[in-house]
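Milestone 3.1: sequence recovery, worked example.
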């Protein structure tokens, strides 16, 4: 890259529109062409508000430039310019008006700053009309091309850079010289440039082998995986029209043809768009292992839509899932005979909460499964969706669900969603080795697949590798800081391993405006864990309540933290209407902390019965704290036989489980042993817990230590333990003012 290529300077950044790159010191970052056009337009209108409508008109000139498209383009620019903090340095959002690129000095167009300067060609802001195909194509495919090619969706952009190509799988392409059917010099020039552009673009692809000049086709033995790209250009009125043909090199038969058109004044953008459209198609075909020799045009279009929806799901944000659903909903209407779309839509509905299944969408999923069965479609994703759906509604048990997903894996062995979701079922089933193998394979195929990161981090934590789990999450969140599921898991690991200061520092430096309220509540939890009760209460009161029940939960929580247990009774009782099973125990816990143990025991039993929970169950995911409380209350009531019956299987499970981190049992063994009267064993278990890093002495569930821990005072080491905990928490309180920088602002 030579200095004369510079056209703009923005503070420390040098902007090279023709190279579609930006440079700072020795760092060179390449941008997709449409992203560069947005940057150039904002630079030319620096310190002025540019509306979304203006960007749509001046940069895209396409009705398919939706709000999501523009939002993502701005997001990519901010990331590339390191402009992702709470207060943006360059590109700022003006609510209800648009965006402004702010700079304290005039944006310098590099006219005289470089010796031997050549006059730059005008930067065209008009998007060639890729949607203006001559042959009738659906608007839906055009929209996807506009999204995927023109504005380069973030997920695809990141993933392609990480994949390792398999050379012997590459698609061999022969690029024939495009011709000018009207014999005009201008058309011949466009044809020549298009041929060169296709050669350049496709030769740089990691999944193609490119050969020039199809005229020698008969003299070369075909590999069986060779295809020919050819076509012609002609001028009609004020436009150039390009007809492109994709043929089987072995048979010479044309597999499909496509026509594009664009204004003459913007012919170079037309050429670029055609080249990128073909490159995108080839990338999709290679990644999804499409049979290019048998694909109909409709199947090809449907495959591209499915691919785009998958790429959106890979990143895992709520917005991406919503966009994936929109694409597939329209695709179902446009391509009713492409039955795979139905199951892809069902999977998108099932996963609309990213790393968590969405029960609200189960009726839609059931209907779509029924449609697939009516169409006699039983592809790989069908078995995935059916297995997960039936498991979620308790129609099948876990081993049967695993069997369904194994059928899915056999049909689509490199589908990363299948691999990852099957890994999770093996994890739940206790087969950590198989789960890890599948999750790691998924990440090898898609290094930045959020769901695989999510489950692999859980696996590492459950194997007591909490440092590795946290590193895995923080590495991903540096690039995708708005992933709710991973943020949620990260703060659970921080709190679960006694790193409360990291919870607070992490959550206070990311943008929580679009995050769920539970993440905001985690800040308050962290403050209470670290011993800052007033700050915890203040933070809880700032949480936006989303329902009357949620409001009662917050009121109950605040009054309990203030240790106003009697005043909290009414709010806690009303809070028990929560749909969340863990939200059914507020009043029972309130009674326990008031010292009304018999009433509390009966209320715990009633709450278990209300949610049809099996209190004999030993699944650590299922109400462990509540089961431990109930065992302790049974001991207080003298019902030691029942307490022993419930405690024994739990203590056995603890021997094979992690104390800290995801699904860690913490000091549940300590409370149970105290309840059973085995105090010496309880004291030793508490000492082990402290040595391993446990620090949840001040627990928000109990407005302080669990009441059973009062018995620790009988051990001569109690004062030493207590001083150690208080000093450790004091050290963390100091660190709260020193924000952790693991995740980019």
């Amino acid at each position: 890259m030579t200095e004369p290529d510079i056209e703009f300077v923005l503070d420390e950044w040098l902007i090279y529109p023709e190279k579609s790159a930006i440079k700072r010191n020795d760092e060179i970052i390449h941008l997709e062409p449409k992203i560069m056009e947005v940057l150039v337009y904002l630079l030319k209108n620096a310190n002025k508000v540019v509306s979304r409508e203006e960007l749509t008109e001046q940069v895209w000139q396409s009705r398919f430039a939706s709000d999501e498209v523009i939002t993502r383009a701005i997001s990519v620019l901010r990331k590339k310019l390191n402009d992702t903090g709470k207060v943006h340095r360059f590109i700022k959002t003006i609510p209800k008006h648009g965006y402004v690129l702010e700079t304290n000095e005039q944006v310098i167009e590099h006219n005289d700053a470089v010796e031997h300067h050549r006059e730059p060609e005008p930067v065209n802001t008009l998007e060639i009309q890729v949607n203006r195909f001559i042959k009738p194509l659906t608007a839906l495919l055009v929209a996807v091309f506009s999204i995927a090619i023109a504005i380069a969706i973030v997920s695809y952009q990141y993933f392609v850079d990480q994949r390792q190509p398999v050379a012997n799988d590459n698609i061999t392409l022969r690029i024939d010289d495009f011709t000018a059917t009207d014999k005009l010099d201008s058309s011949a020039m466009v044809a020549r440039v298009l041929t060169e552009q296709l050669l350049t673009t496709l030769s740089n692809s990691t999944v193609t082998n490119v050969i020039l000049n199809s005229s020698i086709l008969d003299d070369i033995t075909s590999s069986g995986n060779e295809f020919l790209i050819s076509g012609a250009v002609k001028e009609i009125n004020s436009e150039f029209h390009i007809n492109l043909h994709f043929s089987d090199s072995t048979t010479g038969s044309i597999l499909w043809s496509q026509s594009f058109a664009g204004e003459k004044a913007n012919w170079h953008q037309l050429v670029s768009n055609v080249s990128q459209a073909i490159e995108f198609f080839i990338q999709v075909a290679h990644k999804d292992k499409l049979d290019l020799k048998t694909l109909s045009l409709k199947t090809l279009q449907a495959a591209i839509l499915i691919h785009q929806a998958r790429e959106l799901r890979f990143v895992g944000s709520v917005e991406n899932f919503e966009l994936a659903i929109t694409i597939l909903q329209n695709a179902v209407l446009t391509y009713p005979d492409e039955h795979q779309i139905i199951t892809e839509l069902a999977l998108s509905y099932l996963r609309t909460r990213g790393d968590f299944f969405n029960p609200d969408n189960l009726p839609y999923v059931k209907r779509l499964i029924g449609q697939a069965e009516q169409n006699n479609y039983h592809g790989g994703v069908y078995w995935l969706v059916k297995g997960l759906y039936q498991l979620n509604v308790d129609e099948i048990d876990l081993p049967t669900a695993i069997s369904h997903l194994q059928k899915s894996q056999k049909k689509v062995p490199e589908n990363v969603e299948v691999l990852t979701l099957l890994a999770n079922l093996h994890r739940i089933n206790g087969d950590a080795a198989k789960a890890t193998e599948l999750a790691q394979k998924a990440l090898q195929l898609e290094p930045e697949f959020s769901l695989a990161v999510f489950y692999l981090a859980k696996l590492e934590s459950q194997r007591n590798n909490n440092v590795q789990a946290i590193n895995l999450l923080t590495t991903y969140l540096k690039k995708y800081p708005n992933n709710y599921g991973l943020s949620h898991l990260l703060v659970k690991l921080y709190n679960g391993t006694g790193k409360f200061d990291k919870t607070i520092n992490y959550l206070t430096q990311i943008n929580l405006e679009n995050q769920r309220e539970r993440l905001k509540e985690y800040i308050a939890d962290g403050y209470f864990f670290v011993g800052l009760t007033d700050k915890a209460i203040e933070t809880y009161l700032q949480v936006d309540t989303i329902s009357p029940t949620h409001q009662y939960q917050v009121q109950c929580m605040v009054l309990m933290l203030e240790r106003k247990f009697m005043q909290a009774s009414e709010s806690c009782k009303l809070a028990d209407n929560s749909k969340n099973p863990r939200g059914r125990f507020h009043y029972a816990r309130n009674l326990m902390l008031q010292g009304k143990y018999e009433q509390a025991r009966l209320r715990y039993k009633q709450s278990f019965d209300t949610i049809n929970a099996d209190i004999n169950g030993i699944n650590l995911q299922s109400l462990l704290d509540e089961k431990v409380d109930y065992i302790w209350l049974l001991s207080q009531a003298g019902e030691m036989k029942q307490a022993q019956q419930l405690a024994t299987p739990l203590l056995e499970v603890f021997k094979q489980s992690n104390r800290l981190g995801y699904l860690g049992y913490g000091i549940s063994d300590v409370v149970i042993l105290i309840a059973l009267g085995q105090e010496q064993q309880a004291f030793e278990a508490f000492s082990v817990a402290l040595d391993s890093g446990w620090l949840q002495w001040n627990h928000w569930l109990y407005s302080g230590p669990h009441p059973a821990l009062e018995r620790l005072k009988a051990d001569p080491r109690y004062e030493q333990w207590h001083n150690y905990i208080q000093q450790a928490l004091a050290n963390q309180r100091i660190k709260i003012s020193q924000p952790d920088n693991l995740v980019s602002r």
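The domain at 163-295 is CATH 3.40.50.10610 (Rossmann fold). DSSP finds 30 helices and 14 strands in the chain.
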